[in-house]
Give the backbone structure.
Amino acid sequence: MIRSEPDLDKDVVQQMIECGRILTKKGLNNITSGNESVVLNHRAENVGGLVMYITRSSSKLGHLDEPTAIVKTSLGEYDGNMVLASSEADIHKEIHRKRFEAKPDLKSSACAHAHTIHAAVLSMEFEETGIKELRIPEKYRSKRIKGSVPVFVSRYGSGAKDMVENMPGVLMDNPIMILGNHGAFAVGGDPEEALKRLIELEAITEKMVLDRIIPQRDREIEEKVPEGWLDKYAVAGALGQMRYGKTNIKPKTIGELMRRLDSSSSDWVEAQRRYLNEIFDEFREIGRDLTDFSMDPYRRGSLSRRIGNTVYITRTGVDFADLKKEDLLAFEMGEGDRIEPGLCESWLHETIYDGIATNYITHLLPEYSSRYSIYCGEAIVPIDVEGRYVIKKIPVADPGDNILTKENVGTLIDALKSNEKVAYVKGLGGFALGFGELYEPLHYLESAESSVKMITLAEKIGIDVRAKQEMFRKW
Ligand SMILES: [Zn+2]
């Protein structure tokens, strides 16, 4: 691995990479949410002379091995790298500063923040802002997490001033705390110690949530989703059940296009090969990311990218964990509705590209949000801080039919145009757009899925979700 900044401490970087990976594997964060930081005590004259390693804003915690994912900034004065650092860097800085001031002999200090869903859901029971306490039932207490865990409910969103004022102090007496409607922060001597605390908290709060589920509520929510819903809702043609007019085009796969390039090594052929490889690599990487977050449990998703007049799209039913060159098809704009049914969602993506000048489209059917779209009404309104930050209100189009067709697809296009980011279709999952990279639309859908998971759990344990949505609306 080659890193662009050779002066980064290799051991610290390695520890951060490893912890980010575990955090992601354990499902403790959204794709780019959460952050970690480490400060080594190199005996500076004062605390302000110490250096903090912190994850960059929007870096993927599961892939901190990317060259620019970790940045270095001073614990003292504000330096240029703070612009790159996580939006929660101010809190990290203040936490470390306080820890070193209290214990100048501390060898190192680490802090990790994750979007622990169950801890966040339990914190929703606190209606007022300020510092609270979550009691841990005796049977769930552990060596690291004892009688109670402090909770801070901020008046505002992420990176808010009241967080910087309140949280570092709380973390001086407790190595772990919950941040209301948001997630958790933990500290330790190294990232591993902080990480273990987060994992333990999430395991305990998950059991607590399960204990609190009200059977009656649980049943009511389950009954809102009709049995066999997955087979009921479909994109016309995508599964082969409907076709439009003449369908005589069989698009080439990226694999075929590459094999067609003759084996000669002229500059043009080389450039072409590199170009196709780059396109494929981007799809493959996002395929792995979305698998990490279980975003396509029913294998109904599709990803596409438009370059000029060409659209690259994934085949229906692919395994995103292991995308192959034969899974990626290329067709020209205008051919979309003449492609053999069952192969891909070509006409649908083509119609969206025709209506909106976007470069990427992602369609996924994640478990929680796809089910929720059936009964939530005209919009998904997140009640967690991250969800509100990414997108306040996600429209849900109702085409008036279970099958999305050319006649009713306008409802989806209008919904997408309303925010140019993301929209859901009743029973058909989410559609999101990207203008710069394929990762963008996944980010919207993954954030929506995690918000809806919290909404569903909150409803099941009897939290007044509508009141929360009203409260957030006032922000
Ligand atoms: Zn956060």
